[in-house]
Amino acid sequence: MSPTATVLHPGQMGVVVAAALRAGGSRVSWSPEGRGPATRDRAERAGLVAVDDPAALAAVDVVFSVCPPAAAEAVAGQVAALG
Across-strand partners of 15? Predict the structure, then answer.
């Protein structure tokens, strides 16, 4: 079975990581909460699975956080809060 993954931010950088994971056969989820139309469109075109439940986002083999350096600490805090 292929690994499952979550890409937290499938923006211009994150969607490239997600697409590579998908090309390798992985199921890739992402959270549409608070994301704009361009990100939603990118995620849909890349074949990502939108998931609204934070616990389900974390219940994967690996979580990727691809974000600008200025946002890294805040994103790390959000991920840590998931347990």
Answer: none
Do residues 67 and 78 touch, judged by C-beta distance below 8 A?
no
pLDDT digits 0-9 by tens, 56-82: 888 999 999 888 899 899 988 988 887
Q: What is the phi/psi pair of residue 64, to 5°?
A: -105, 130
Q: Is the dihedral of CA 42, 67, 48, 40 positive or negative?
A: negative
Instruction: Tell me what pLDDT residue 45 has.
Output: 95
The torsion angles phi and psi of 65, rounded to 5 degrees, stand at -120, 110
User: What percent of the chain stands above pLDDT 70?
Assistant: 99
Task: Mention every residue, 6+ apart, whose C-beta is less than 8 A from residue 76.
Answer: 65
